[in-house]
Specification:
single chain; alpha+beta; TolA/TonB C-terminal domain; 4-stranded antiparallel sheet; 9 helices; 9 strands; 22% strand; disordered N terminus
Length: 265
């Protein structure tokens, strides 16, 4: 079973200042968002639900405040929705061409549905592309680029914290797999796809591959830090996993930037 998350911008939204009929008003438009992650423990307990919120958008297009209007019924899902919404970036609302704060409605849906067929199709495509790259030297460049495209698509759309690693392990080399032995059972490691790619095809779009490695390593580390484990043991476990992750990646990519470690008060 794979967890998916849907985001819906509600139609009911209004600027915070008083409205004058002759004014020309535009509402915030979503500009940038990271991949929303489904808490692992919530998936294991098969917790589903919808979180309805109000987001206060500043004149700079940042979310300055969030408020839950209707809970999903599960604290972990509510927390995940708030953390995600807090990082959204918008083109700000305007009145007569000038940016101003606004209040909008936002809804996050957590539901579990069977999308294993898509994941299996991804694995089959990547394995076939590896075969082409091995058997036809002249096709290596095209095959490698296609692999990178498939990896990016899979990593971008996968929100399942429980089974994503099992599919990843089907398309990476044995030596890549062994480097993350201590981490596979803990949390999703989508960045490993790009580490493996750089080992296989170091000369085909390395800059793009490193950029994707950076992006997903940072996102996965944030997920581990915030949502992967359940209180009261979450801090200790996440710190241990992140330390191992930093050690493994630091040996190969010393310039990689991961979220700052939390400092106990």
């Amino acid at each position: 079973m794979v967890a998916t998350v849907a985001l819906v911008l509600l139609a009911t939204a209004s600027c915070s200042s008083s409205r004058i009929d002759s004014d020309t008003v535009t509402m915030p438009v979503l500009k940038e968002a990271t991949n929303l992650r489904y808490p692992m423990d919530a998936q294991m307990k098969r917790q589903e639900g919808v979180v309805r919120m109000r987001l206060f958008i500043s004149e700079k297009g940042l979310v300055s405040k969030t408020r839950i209007v209707q809970s999903s019924g599960f604290a972990q899902l509510d927390e995940a929705a708030i953390q995600y919404a807090s990082g959204l970036q918008f083109t700000p609302a305007t009145r007569n061409g000038r940016p101003e704060p606004a209040l909008i409605g936002w809804r996050v849906r957590f539901e579990i549905e069977d999308t294993s067929a898509e994941a299996i199709a991804y694995v089959e495509k990547v394995v076939a592309l590896y075969d082409i790259a091995t058997a036809t030297p002249l096709a290596v460049q095209d095959a490698a680029r296609a692999v990178l495209d498939e990896h990016e698509s899979f990593a971008s759309t996968s929100t399942d914290a429980m089974s994503v690693n099992e599919y990843i392990k089907l398309v990476i080399r044995a030596d890549t797999d062994s480097d993350y032995t201590l981490l596979w059972g803990s949390c999703p490691l989508r960045f490993v796809l790009f580490d493996d790619y750089l080992r296989r095809f170091p000369d085909v779009e390395p800059q793009r591959a490193v950029g994707l490695l950076q992006r997903f390593a940072a996102e996965d580390a944030t997920y581990i830090q915030q949502l992967c484990f359940v209180q009261p043991e979450r801090e200790a476990k996440s710190t241990q996993v992140l330390a191992t992750l930093r050690t493994v990646l630091g040996q190969r990519y010393p310039t990689l930037v991961l979220p700052e470690e939390r400092v106990a008060p």
